[in-house]
């Protein structure tokens, strides 16, 4: 697979912190953003990720 869009997520109890960038161009797609640990928060994350082809996205999750 040739992933070029990286999504890094730092997991916490009430909200999560994330960052999205394009590894091919070095472009920061989204600066640091927070989303709630609920269905609305995850819907906002999915909306951001869905703008890219599925096979180009790699998501990394780090729990604190």
TrEMBL record:
MF (Gene Ontology): DNA binding; transposase activity
One annotated GO biological process: DNA transposition
Pfam family, one: DEDD_Tnp_IS110
Domain Transposase IS110-like N-terminal: from-to ranges: 7-64
Domain of life: Bacteria
Record protein name field: IS110 family transposase
